[in-house]
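Ticket #4471: structure export looks truncated?
Reporter: QA, pipeline team
Priority: medium

Steps to reproduce: submit the single chain below to the structure queue and open the exported record.
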Amino acid sequence: IEMMNNVKSIGYSAFYGCESLSSIEIPDSVTIIEGFAFEECINLSSIMVTEGSYAEKWAKWTDFEDLLVIK
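Actual output as written to the record:
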C-alpha cells in the first residue's frame, strides 16, 4: 500500500489483523501512528519510510524496526 501524501495519521488498530498487507509506504506527512495500527499483520514484511521521518522513529520505538526500508 502506498499512502497519499496528505495523510496525517494512522488510527488505532487501522490495519489490525490485515493478513493481506505485505508492505506499506508511509509518507512524511504522517505524524501520528496510534497503537496497534499494524498488530497481527502476519504477512507484513516491509515498511517503507523516509530517513528521519516520524514513521522511522515510530518503527524504531516499536517492534517494527526489522521491517524498515529507508528510502
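Status: closed, not a bug. The export was complete when the record was re-opened. Leaving a note from the reviewer for reference: The mean pLDDT is 96.
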